[in-house]
């Protein structure tokens, strides 16, 4: 049985009349295609919410944190309970949208009680990191055209990218990690210019150091995986930085720590 996306969306939101909702519930029990359709709709909703990921990293008010912590198991704090017949579907959509990691990270932060307050982990990475991951997927596979300007013009790279990005760009010395500076290029992420400095190791692996100007730089180091890449991001005085390398690269956090000192 097929249902259009408008009806399925209304079903997930608990807005259908009981008779129509029961019809969908019955079909879901035996129709794999409908189950897949509903799953795809829920995943699309999660992607849409990713546009607000940076907002979700703001500290959660203490009162809201307490309400979530004290809420009965299976209920969403400060939200009217959905009709019991569809409770499992509403709960599933919430878990998928936030991501299990975000929920567990939030509760861990609440229980530990950091001095900066409770923070809610984002369901998706900030838009600029997702854009940089897309660029890295393209350029890391290049050899002759890995960079726009080669390492032999290091002074020009720093001057050019600093002026374009609007924040100081300094080439980090990462030789202690077996990395050779190859040059730089200019990207655009989340509508802003981004400086990308490219490094390679003895095995041909590519590590990029990127930065974009920010009036509200991130606090502390954050490690996340986007597709095939691992990313370690942090904030400086006037910019946000990220080091990008292949997923599973064991030294990426150490590289980021060194880069943060140099830049």
TrEMBL record:
Pfam families: zf-HC2. InterPro entries: Znf_put. This is Anti-sigma factor RsiW. It comes from Litoreibacter ponti. Residues 7-30 form the Putative zinc-finger domain.
